[in-house]
Specification:
With about 130 residues, this protein is α+β, with helices and mostly antiparallel strands. The protein has one domain: Phosphoribosyl-AMP cyclohydrolase (Ubiquitin-like (UB roll)), CATH 3.10.20. The chain contains 3 helices and 8 strands. The strands form 3 sheets. A 4-stranded mixed sheet has the order 2-1-6-5, covered by helices on one side. The chain has a two-stranded antiparallel sheet with strand order 3-4. A two-stranded antiparallel sheet has the order 7-8. Strand 7 and strand 8 form a beta hairpin.
Length: about 130
């Protein structure tokens, strides 16, 4: 594991950007942050774990929503500062209830919603 971690260029906060992509369709699902501990856990368990900057702790994708990501493959970019996670996404990836987090498109000088929620956030998080 140390060979893997030593190759990653974590930023000054000890984090690396991680892009989650559906392994079989190529759909870009989300971007989040990982630290050494979350990278290690993800590789050890096969379940994607991120680092939540707002909560300052590990964030196991799907721990509250059930919308888990199973790791298929982890890739490192040429600069060593971005991870690409090829995943098998169970359900929706976005906390807004959409399949992915990229549901706003810049069109004609404004943001246009191009995808509706598949499930309400209240239902997703049982609020």
């Amino acid at each position: 594991m140390s060979k893997i971690l030593d190759t990653i260029n974590f930023n000054a906060d000890g984090l690396i950007a991680a892009i989650a992509q559906q392994h079989d369709t190529g759909e870009v699902l989300m971007m989040a942050w990982m630290n050494a501990e979350s990278v290690t856990e993800t590789l050890a368990t096969g379940q994607v774990c991120y680092y939540s900057r707002s909560r300052q702790k590990l964030w196991r994708k799907g721990e509250t929503s059930g919308q888990q990501q199973k790791l298929v493959e982890m890739r490192l970019d040429c600069d060593g500062d971005t991870l690409l996670l090829l995943v098998d996404q169970k359900g929706v990836a976005c906390h807004t209830g959409r399949r992915n987090c990229f549901f706003l498109a810049a069109r004609n000088g404004e943001w246009v919603e191009i995808a509706k929620p598949e499930v309400s956030p209240e239902e997703l998080y049982k609020r």
